[in-house]
Amino acid sequence: MNTDTFAPTPTKHRAPRPDHVPQELVREVDAYALDGIEEGVHEAWKKIQRPDTPPLIWTPLTGGHWIATRGVLIDEIYRNPDRFSSRIIWVPREAGEAYEMVPTRMDPPEHTPYRKAIDKGLNLAQIRKVESDVRSVAIELIEGFASHGGCDFAKDYGGVFPVRVFLALAGLPLEDAAKLNLLANEMTRPSGSTPDEQGRSLEAANKGFFDYVGPIIEERRGGSGTDLITLMVNSEINGEPIAQDKALGLVSLLLLGGLDTVVNFLSFMMIYLARHPETVEELRSDPLKLQRGVEEMFRRFAVVSDARFVVADMEYYGTQLKRGDLILLPTALHGLDDIQHEDPMRVDLSRRNVSHSTFAQGPHRCAGMHLARMEVTITLQEWLARIPRFSLKEGAAPIYHSGIVAAVENVPLVWEV
């Protein structure tokens, strides 16, 4: 086996290998700084998923934890909270322990009433009511630069469109976006060169969210508004008003989810389309194929890598796990698993039986998935109606970041006016 991809990086902090971890399962994988990331986040994750890579590998980096490398494990672990708990969902462990947002740190049945509170404003029926407003935002942004012959997609659209939509749904001022984006970046890609430093960075960002939403929660308690925050903070949990600490976590989670995931997904998708004009032509040729193809996009460009806590000692896929072990679930590796998808790096708009964990699975399946699907569909429809052919600017070098949520910046697109 060629081990070049897993060559040691001497400057990084390493955890000692536990006794129950066989040496042959150890790989040097840093979820926050993937080897080969300059070629792309998904390309870097895919290099780890070799034919001879075990279904579970262990890395001494980011505090020491397992990584599930195959789609069947990622799907199964998400669906089984009785064996794989959400009490710690971030790596390194120090960051996971500092993370205080709910209900992502909860397991059923404690999790269930909080999830119902979130779903009040994000269920499919509610999201359909705002489709025309979402479309208007997309049209306004695209028409603002369509005549220019180019834009930095990540900066001018990807980082603006979902944020404007979400802040409007939450009833928050657009000028707060920059501050909230900085906090979101530190939550999903915490700075620091050791687990302790990353834990402190995440703790500070978590506090920043709580400090921001605290006064807003107080102001909207008892209110009759229809914005997402008012709906949530006036929900009852087991027949009682939601407690302040839980409201802080719930509203902060809402903002974190709305400000980081779709923002980055859109840019990954557009980089691919800019490099594959034949796929763009196929999307333009058939409105129905475009709508159906959105699910294929979600398979191909998953951005989340969160973790689960092993509840008890067990043997899992031939590997000994101990209570307290953490397993990272890179959702990209489900969608890119060639055991489940032929030629998985290619966007195939005719692909059948598309399976992925881009929105997770089980009780923590993403509450914002209906909004995300709408935002991606509308972006493709309105962009291609106004900019039917486009490419990456010659010499463009997108800058990729891995982490709990993968990110990309510097996405210069050009087109003929």
What is the compact description of this entry?
This protein has helices spanning 41-48, 71-79, 93-98, 112-122, 124-129, 131-145, 153-158, 161-170, 177-188, 195-220, 228-233, 244-275, 277-285, 287-300, 332-335, 369-386, and strands at residues 56-59, 65-68, 84-85, 150-152, 236-237, 240-241, 305-310, 314-316, 319-321, 326-330, 391-392, 399-401, 407-409, 412-414. The protein is α+β, with helices and mostly antiparallel strands and 417 residues long.
Helix and strand arrangement:
Blueprint: H1 41-48, E1 56-59, E2 65-68, H2 71-79, E3 84-85, H3 93-98, H4 112-122, H5 124-129, H6 131-145, E4 150-152, H7 153-158, H8 161-170, H9 177-188, H10 195-220, H11 228-233, E5 236-237, E6 240-241, H12 244-275, H13 277-285, H14 287-300, E7 305-310, E8 314-316, E9 319-321, E10 326-330, H15 332-335, H16 369-386, E11 391-392, E12 399-401, E13 407-409, E14 412-414
Parallel strand pairs: 2-10
Antiparallel strand pairs: 1-2, 3-7, 4-14, 5-6, 7-10, 8-9, 11-14, 12-13
